[in-house]
Amino acid sequence: MPRWLAHLLVVVGWLLTPVLAWSASYVGLWLGAIFATRFTRPLTMLVVAGAAAAVCGFVALTVWVRFMRRVPHLLSHHMAPRASEEQRAIAAAD
């Protein structure tokens, strides 16, 4: 994998972070609203739905950030060596 592609994947991954958090909170709000229909008071329904949205968004964001911090290490195994490192890699292989 070329280095520029690996760097592009890291940048795109970090730019997707807000989209992931938004979509996870939307799903959490939807699930919370389904669960909140069991209550009779509208304020309780709003609090339950909002809490579910916040929890889902926070959990997804935490998991995503932990994954994105490991991405450079994971991608480094697939990247081609730099031109300055090629000679050392060839010499080490001999």
- Give the N-terminus to C-terminus distance in angstroms: 24 Å
Number of strands: 0
Helix content: over 70%
Query: Quick check: average pLDDT?
Result: 82
Derived from helix and strand composition plus strand pairing, the structural class reads: mainly alpha
Tell me about the largest β-sheet.
none
Write down the overall geometry.
rod-shaped
Helix and strand sequence: HHHH
Query: How many H/I helical runs?
Result: 4
Contiguous low-pLDDT stretches (5 residues minimum) are none
Rg, rounded, reads 22 Å
Task: Report the sheet-strand fraction.
Answer: under 5%
Explain what this protein looks like in three dimensions.
The structure is a single chain. The protein has 94 residues and is an all-alpha fold. The protein has a domain at 17-76. 84% of the residues lie in helices and 0% in strands. The longest helix is centred in the middle third of the chain and has 35 residues, at 42-76. It is rod-shaped and about 70 Å long.
List the helices and strands and how they pair.
Blueprint: H1 3-15, H2 17-36, H3 42-76, H4 83-93
Helix pairs in contact: 1-3, 2-3
What tags apply to this protein structure?
94 residues, 84% helix, mainly alpha, single chain
Task: Write a short abstract of this structure.
By secondary structure, the protein is an all-alpha fold. The chain is built from 4 helices and no strands.
